[in-house]
Write a structure and sequence with these properties.
Elements (H helix, E strand, L loop, with lengths): L1 H13 L1 E2 L4 E5 L8 E4 L6 E2 L3 E6 L2 E10 L14 E2 L7 H14 L3 H9 L12 E5 L13 H10 L7 H8 L4 H9 L2 E5 L20 H13 L5 E7 L5 H14 L3 E5 L6 H12 L4 E3 L5 H13 L4 E4 L11 E7 L7 E2 L5 E2 H12 L2 E6 L4 H8 L4 E5 L10 E6 L17 H12 L3 E5 L8 E4 L16 E3 L4 E3 L6 E2 L14 E4 L3 H11 L5 E4 L7 H12 L5 E4 L12 E6 L13 H13 L10 E6 L5 H8 L2 H15 L5 E10 L2 H13 L7 E14 L2 E11 L4 H11 L7 E6 L6
Bound molecules: adenosine-5'-diphosphate (ADP) and zinc ion.
The site of zinc ion has 8 residues, from loops.
């Protein structure tokens, strides 16, 4: 035991755990604690080293978390196999993981898994060659001095480029020219000791000329870079130049030699974001999201650790990348609920991004046209700084928003079947078509119809594995469950009454609205767009190009189209069902609808042509509709805040949900009862449930929920921990903890 104490004393000084010392190794598994191992022969280990260790009869890749706990006698400990030749997991990331685990009550190993996943199948990358200027002039190489060649040569002289494509991107020319220049010797291919897999980003490449308000915002944000932790909320209507402005803060961080993380809610959004980066910095940033292939993931992961990746644009999990020297975080569209990770490891990426910034002592920018209520409260309480852009950039005016009362002016009977577009919207689209302008019909529902039922007996087609209807997709001729992916063809006969050809579609999805648009405007080009039609970024790119080049007259789309894109020719936006998000019980239903409608409205009238937005609603007096028409977002937020305050709902109170699920409903119900019997009690503590979840059946699992609600001053985490420790839940029932739940399904 004494020798151990001395060893730890040594480690405290040099940071090295020498041979024979005990270290705790956190494994990327859903486990709550790190396990102790002995340091093997060699140079010792440091905290953050990625190591391979034996676990039972297999091997796992884990991370040295610190000194051993000493829980297991040394004689029983096994040795670390070896340290992998990989970058370390930085101290700040380890601290962050511990913090997030403590807050979300997710196993730290599950969080570590996000952070080290690419390391688990590591193959060292093979750097080879780079392209750069040879130093010879075009003339001396017998090449005619075209603008493209001159530009290429100038850019190539600035450094080394891993591929012709990267050089072409940086110079903004097509890569076809490059081969000739290499053959002629104006560019040369050199062996590169170290070639970054990423484009060089030049903060001075193309700075914008800023408007006064933008300039003030930029000054504020730039001053934060290098000045420690701070949170700035960059608020401005769509088109006010938020992206333009935060790119200047990115430039400041790059100039200071720091790395930058830009979190985006949906990866479909990145196409235009990347284009903006390329324009501004002469190169595209590194990407991070779950659809990347393994090679790209590995490259970005290692690039953040080595520092080659200067800027990462990524989805939620990019927060767990091992950045070497992160200097700025930007959360774009901070209000988006997509930042809340709901499956598997449950955490809110925007909230945790603030924590990551705090742990790293760096600034974070939360950008949004419609900041979340939580963020608004933080601004009002002076915890976050308010940086505002008051109006749209240039001549672009905000669109006019009108309500279409579906009771007063319902869609007229049509020859092709049911219609979903009311006369005022039809007229507006007519006008736009006449003026050579584009229209967007927005409906947040994929497929043809959300419900299919038997006309004879009323039987509804539902998913066998979920509490959900099957959605008909006519394009693919399938019925789909949007929750579990179940798919089947439309049956010929009703399984309930046997009637043939008796199924009817109820309600509209975008395919059905597109059908109506095609019937109404046979000469117009109509395109239906949803997330399932845009799986690949290249498809998104083509679509955006088609819209910009006016190869589409009428777009029918879900929210994939509602955000981030700029379509100057688009002047009419029709929201087919503005009430859609308001049904059902959800704390944030009104807020979300307000945000989404504003986002959709923001697509209209970007350039000189003013836009007009039409909201079809059955409830024109609803506060959300009134706020949208009057444009008084502040009054709306105020009323939402008052409502949440009155109910003690977040951010005035705290919530933690327990979601029980399992294949055996009886066992799930019994577990709910067990938990209810042991529920925490006390002043300012309330437990609701257990009750069947809204999605009582999901992917074949039965689900029940409990909700713990506490006063703001009572953190729910210790209560939940003690609660779960006090009961015995059978292994067949899974208990998921959701701190600050956003979904109540
Ligand atoms: P937001 O992110 O607030 O929606 P953007 O930054 O995308 O706004 O700006 C909207 C449009 O206006 C973009 O096309 C952008 O390039 C342009 N824009 C904004 N500010 C400037 C500026 N200072 N100079 C040139 N173009 C600008
Ligand atoms: Zn299903």
């Amino acid at each position: 035991m004494t020798s151990q104490t001395t060893l730890f004393a040594v480690s405290a000084v040099s940071g090295v755990y020498p041979q024979g010392a005990q270290v705790s190794v956190l494994l990327p598994l859903p486990v709550d604690t790190a396990y102790d191992y002995l340091v093997p022969t060699g140079d010792g280990l440091r905290a953050g080293d990625i190591v391979e260790v034996p676990l039972g009869r297999r091997f796992e890749v884990g991370v040295v978390w610190g000194a051993g706990t000493g829980d297991v006698p040394p004689a029983k400990l096994r040795e670390v196999v070896h340290k992998l030749d990989l970058p370390q997991i930085p101290e700040v990331l380890r601290r962050f993981i511990d913090w997030v685990a403590g807050y979300t009550l997710q196993p730290p190993g599950s969080l570590l898994r996000i952070a080290v996943n690419p390391a688990r199948r590591w193959v060292p990358p093979a750097p080879v060659t780079a392209i750069t200027a040879s130093g010879a002039s075009l003339a001396s190489r017998g090449l005619k001095a075209t603008p493209a060649r001159e530009k290429l040569l100038a850019i190539a002289a600035r450094g080394q480029f891993p591929t012709a494509a990267a050089l072409a991107r940086a110079a903004g020319v097509s890569s076809g020219v490059i081969r000739d220049m290499i053959t002629a010797g104006a560019l040369s291919v050199i062996p590169a000791a170290h070639v970054s897999a990423f484009d060089a980003l030049d903060p001075g490449a193309a700075p914008p000329v800023l408007e006064a308000a933008q300039g003030a915002a930029v000054d504020d944000l730039r001053a934060r870079v290098g000045a420690g932790f701070s949170v700035a909320v960059l608020e401005g209507v769509t088109g006010s130049g938020k992206t333009e402005v935060y790119l200047e803060a990115v430039a400041a961080a790059l100039t200071a030699g720091k790395q930058v993380l830009v979190l985006v809610p949906e990866i479909a959004l990145t196409t235009q974001t990347l284009a903006r980066f390329a324009q501004r910095f002469g190169g595209v940033p590194a990407l991070w999201h779950s659809d990347l292939n393994y090679k790209a993931r590995r490259e970005t992961w290692a690039g953040t650790a080595t520092g080659d990746a200067r800027v990462v644009v990524g989805a939620r999990s990019a927060l767990f990348l091992p950045f070497n020297d992160l200097g700025l975080i930007v959360v774009d569209e901070e209000h988006e609920s997509a930042f809340k990770q709901e499956d598997g490891v449950i955490y809110h990426a925007r909230d945790m991004a603030v924590v990551r910034a705090r742990e790293g002592g760096i600034p974070i920018i939360l950008a949004s046209a419609t900041p979340s209520l939580e963020t608004v409260m933080n601004v009002r309480d002076k915890r976050y700084a308010d940086v505002r852009l008051p109006q749209r950039y240039g001549a672009a005016a905000m669109p006019k928003i009108s309500i279409i009362d579906m009771k007063a002016t319902p869609p007229e009977k049509a020859t092709w079947g049911r219609a979903w577009l009311a006369p005022p919207l039809v007229n507006a689209v007519n006008r736009a078509l006449g003026a050579g302008e584009q229209s967007l019909l927005f409906l947040n529902r994929r497929g043809y119809a959300p419900l299919t039922l038997c006309r004879t007996c009323g039987h509804r087609l539902h998913c066998p594995r979920c509490t959900a209807w099957l959605v008909e997709h006519r394009l693919t001729r399938r019925l789909q469950c949007h929750h579990c992916g179940f798919a089947a063809s439309v049956p010929e006969a009703c399984s309930s009454c046997g009637a043939k050809d008796s199924f009817v579609a109820c309600g509209p999805g975008i395919e059905r609205v597109a059908e109506e648009a095609t019937a109404r405007w046979p000469d117009a080009v109509v395109r239906a767009v949803a997330s399932d039609t845009l799986e690949r970024p290249s498809v998104v790119q083509e679509l955006v190009e088609d819209i910009l080049q006016h190869r589409v007259d009428i777009l029918v789309g879900t929210q994939v189209l509602a955000k981030g894109h700029h379509f100057p020719g688009l002047t009419v936006v029709g929201v087919v069902d503005a009430d859609l998000g308001l049904s059902g019980w959800d704390l944030r239903a009104a807020e979300r609808t307000h945000q989404l409608m504003q986002q959709v409205a923001g697509r209209a009238g970007r350039a000189e042509k003013p836009g007009h937005v039409y909201l079809q609603t059955h409830d024109p007096r609803h506060p959300v509709m009134e706020a949208l028409v009057s444009g008084d977002g502040v009054a709306f937020i105020d009323s939402e805040i008052a409502a949440r305050d009155a109910l003690g709902m977040p951010p005035f109170g705290r919530l933690a949900a327990l979601i029980l699920s399992g294949p055996d409903e009886i066992a799930v119900i019994a577990a709910g009862k067990t938990l209810a019997a042991a529920a925490p009690e006390g002043e300012g503590i309330e437990v609701l449930g257990p009750a069947p979840a809204f999605m009582a059946l999901l992917r074949g699992l039965h689900r029940h929920r409990l909700l713990l609600k506490t006063k703001r001053t009572i953190p729910p985490q210790p209560l939940v921990k003690a609660w779960l420790e006090a009961v015995k839940i059978p292994a067949s029932v899974r208990v998921q903890i959701d701190i600050d739940p956003y979904s109540f399904y």
